[in-house]
Recover the amino acids of this structure.
């Protein structure tokens, strides 16, 4: 589905709104509507259940957003959590220098893709893409150009040679996407952390940061949790919470926000065993996505070649969003970097006594970190479909449907009396709603013709509709309609709650 349609559907059907819309909005801030919050909570529940409640050696935590300022010094965020920015002097628009250069390369990549598609058509079934890419003169030349531009950019960025990054932008004659002007300022590093001020302490001393990741609350509590919950290495601490980043280039809806939610788990292991655990968590996390029904070709690993200073291995799970493959989740082997840094700056030991080895050590850490909002966007873009279905007059009509896995669907079941003015039907429907509401998020809807009500439920992804008609009053049966197959069956009214509960249970994702 087109990305514009995904965004429009999210607004029209109560999933996501622009923040402060009546004041023309605030860039990169969004609010979740009535169905959005249900979907988001269900995603979190699935994550929490699979990461915390189904592992005896992983426990939860909810740390404060504000932390001692030294935390961010120790973690490296004060000195190194930067984006290279450049301003266009004419349009006054600000960009990430690396993204301007990457955008330039993406245009070359698009030309390569066109050549590949043309060749695919020409050669038909015999076409070997890898061979074509490595032998076609024009494609090889273009690919070499991309590689050399990106290599120069990465080298300059890691050497902090920002003057060269600007030269590269000028040499490539990159123009401001807004105004077409090539009149650029110098490139500067811009720290992504938001800061605020403590009320009772003036100046730098009182400067507080809004956490840019939830992980540090886990590291600083490592010993508290280990001792008070009697965990033995290897064990994990998981947390879901808000994080804040002053993202300059706010694009792509809830993909990149200034305030977002992370679901992170830090797994503490014996030094030397981290690569095994890294491989384990990579696979386990990929499986977690697949269990929701995400097709394998929409997911891929991207192993990092250039590693952050704290990591000895890192990979992203990328998802094919409507705007291409992008990072959805990161799995990082963070070594003992964070705990050692906190140990040094706080002067407090953050070591574990391993009774089996009879020695103390600072554990190594393997992290899994996923943005809840990105996961939401991935699921919404995957679920939203338009399809042609048979209509009641024997013809065809188009319906908009969100094919969520029932376990994460915002509303599990709608209860629909055939007629709204029939007291008996209304009462039977309300009774059914009361029987269901303790177990699942159910909805009672009596307005409009039944066909329109079905369409409304399809549009928010409700897996089941239960229709109450006159036969219900005679034999205690209702019609159950399944969203994807459109199949309708009569079942006993007493059976309905168990059917809905079982088919929409998170348990379905584990068996
Ligand atoms: P990106 O390269 O896209 O900026 P990142 O590598 O900085 O992401 P991490 O620091 O690894 O991201 O954060 C872990 C996860 O948090 C990401 O995989 C992503 O799902 C989510 N995330 C990070 N930044 C944002 C943001 N600004 N808005 C929404 N989600 C985000």
């Amino acid at each position: 589905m087109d990305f514009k349609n995904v965004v429009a559907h999210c607004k029209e059907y109560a999933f996501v709104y622009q923040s402060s819309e009546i004041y023309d909005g605030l860039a990169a801030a969004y609010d979740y509507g009535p169905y959005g919050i249900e979907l988001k909570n269900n995603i979190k529940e699935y994550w929490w259940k699979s990461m915390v409640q189904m592992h005896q050696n992983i426990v939860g935590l909810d740390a404060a957003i504000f932390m001692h300022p030294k935390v961010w010094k120790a973690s490296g965020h004060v000195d190194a959590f930067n984006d290279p920015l450049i301003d266009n002097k004419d349009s006054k628009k600000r960009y990430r220098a690396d993204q301007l250069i990457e955008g330039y390369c993406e245009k070359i990549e698009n030309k390569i893709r066109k050549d590949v598609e043309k060749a695919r058509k020409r050669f038909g079934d015999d076409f070997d893409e890898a061979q074509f890419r490595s032998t076609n003169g024009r494609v090889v030349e273009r690919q070499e150009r991309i590689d050399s531009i990106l290599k120069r950019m990465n080298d300059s960025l890691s050497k902090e040679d920002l003057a060269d990054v600007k030269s590269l932008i000028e040499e490539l004659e990159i123009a401001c996407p807004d105004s077409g002007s090539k009149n650029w300022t110098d490139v500067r590093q811009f720290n992504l952390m938001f800061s605020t001020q403590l009320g009772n302490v003036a100046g730098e001393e009182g400067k507080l940061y809004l956490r840019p990741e939830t992980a540090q609350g886990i590291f600083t509590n490592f010993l508290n949790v280990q001792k008070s919950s009697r965990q033995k290495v290897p064990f994990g601490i998981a947390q879901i919470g808000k994080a804040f980043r002053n993202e300059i280039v706010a694009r792509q809806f809830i993909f990149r926000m200034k305030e977002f939610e992370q679901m992170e788990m830090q797994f503490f292991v014996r030094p030397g065993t981290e690569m095994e655990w890294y491989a384990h968590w990579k696979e386990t996390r990929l499986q977690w996505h697949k269990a929701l029904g995400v097709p394998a070709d929409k997911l891929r690993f991207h192993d990092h070649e250039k590693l952050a200073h704290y990591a000895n291995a890192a990979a992203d799970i990328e998802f094919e969003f409507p705007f291409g493959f992008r990072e959805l989740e990161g799995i990082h082997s963070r070594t003992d970097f964070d705990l050692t840094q906190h140990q040094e700056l706080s002067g407090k030991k953050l070591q574990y006594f391993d009774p089996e080895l009879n020695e103390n050590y600072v554990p190594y850490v393997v992290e899994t970190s996923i943005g809840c909002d990105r996961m939401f966007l991935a699921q919404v873009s995957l679920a939203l479909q338009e399809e042609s279905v048979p209509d009641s007059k024997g013809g065809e009509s188009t319906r908009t449907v969100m094919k969520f896995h029932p376990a994460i669907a915002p509303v599990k079941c709608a209860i629909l009396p055939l007629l709204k003015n029939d007291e008996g039907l209304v009462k039977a429907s309300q009774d059914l709603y009361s029987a269901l509401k303790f177990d699942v998020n159910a909805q009672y809807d009596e307005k409009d013709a039944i066909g329109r009500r079905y369409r409304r439920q399809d549009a928010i992804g409700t897996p089941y509709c239960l229709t109450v008609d006159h036969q219900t009053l005679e034999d205690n049966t209702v019609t159950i309609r399944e969203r994807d197959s459109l199949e309708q069956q009569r079942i006993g009214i007493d059976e309905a709650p168990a059917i809905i509960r079982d088919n929409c249970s998170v348990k379905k994702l584990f068996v």
Summary: Residues 82-189 form a domain with the Herpes Virus-1 fold (CATH 3.30.40.230).
